[in-house]
Amino acid sequence: xxxxxxxxxxxxxxxxxxxxxxxxxxxxxxxxxxxxxxxxxxxxxxxxxxxxxxxxxxxxxxxxxxxxxxxxxxxxxxxxxxxxxxxxxxxxxxxxxxxxxxxxxxxxxxxxxxxxxxxxxxxxxxxxxxxxxxxxxxxxxxxxxxxxxxxxxxxxxxxxxxxxxxxxxxxxxxxxxxxxxxxxxxxxxxxxxxxxxxxxxxxxxxxxxxxxxxxxxxxxxxxxxxxxxxxxxxxxxxxxxxxxxxxxxxxxxxxxxxxxxxxxxxxxxxxxxxxxxxxxxxxxxxxxxxxxxxxxxxxxxxxxxxxxxxxxxxxxxxxxxxxxxxxxxxxxxxxxxxxxxxxxxxxxxxxxxxxxxxxxxxxxxxxxxxxxxxxxxxxxxxxxxxxxxxxxxxxxxxxxxxxxxxxxxx
Length: 410
Fold this sequence. Notes:
The radius of gyration is 22 Å and the shape is globular. β5 (164-171) and β6 form a beta hairpin. Strands 1, 2, 3, 4, 5, 6, 7, 8 and 9 form a nine-stranded mixed beta sheet that branches. The protein contains eleven helices and nine strands. It folds into three domains: 2-120, Acyl-CoA dehydrogenase/oxidase, N-terminal domain (Butyryl-Coa Dehydrogenase, subunit A, domain 1); 123-225, Butyryl-CoA Dehydrogenase, subunit A, domain 2, CATH 2.40.110; 230-396, Butyryl-CoA Dehydrogenase, subunit A, domain 3 (Up-down Bundle). It is of the alpha+beta class.
């Protein structure tokens, strides 16, 4: 009980601490979506305020937040602007990986960088007709004790705002798959904001190109040591985006109904804010947002279990089988939530438009961004595959895959 109270108090303190940031972010979200203006200043301000280090232990200068607390804040941030929440997806995944890494100077150096406000972006997906499982981005020894990286990646969400790029590559000298943490502030790195999706327009997603970019050997991380619950973690960020989008829809559509002065001759009330049918619509949207947030919380608990298991395994306190079970539980929880929340949130936001008339589709209001953003977030890692895998587990006891790849089938 004492731990629970402490967590609640810490979450309340963190919410109060970042409330001004989130409120400021929410004020400009619609205009950024309309204009395509990237949130450089907003993300830089969040980093300066220590948001990127909230998972870092207090002993190392961070806030020591649990995963449950982190994702509560993520839903708050996504409700303010789901683009910014998703833009920070890779950063917090890399933070998580370093938190469960072997203790030592290398780990401490990264934790210090996070506390200093440095951010990490993503560069994983190969461009073009690459066969499933192939990695054509290569890291090569330069003959002088260092390494160079060459390749092109797409879906580089958040990289344009970052200081480091979490890049999936293959070493030419050993053939091993690695994560190359590439300093983006160098001539050999080119970033383009060329994502053309109808949603998540300002996540800074696009192409990352590496041309003989320098990578220090200490920043080549063996992929086999990557934290095992990474796919569940990545999915959880998208779930928080869905929950935040539903909450934002509840907020914005409720505000529109409250101030609406026009009504119809066949409406159930003379004032929109007193019309029982319109109030029912808003109530249903609010309920969907509640369920989505609750699902995020349950997945957070499973992820926290996987994190605690990784630490316990590192300390020799549990067996490998026990650790595997904790990671499988996290993967299952994130998959089950994804299968449920994707249609739930999309239908709820679409239904929200039933509380307004045609004016609700005005580009000036930009209410459609909530649906577009949720639809785009829900299109990652297609949930139809997850539903099949969950069914295979239920019927045949087949474990869900925790790592997968995308590419051409031939």
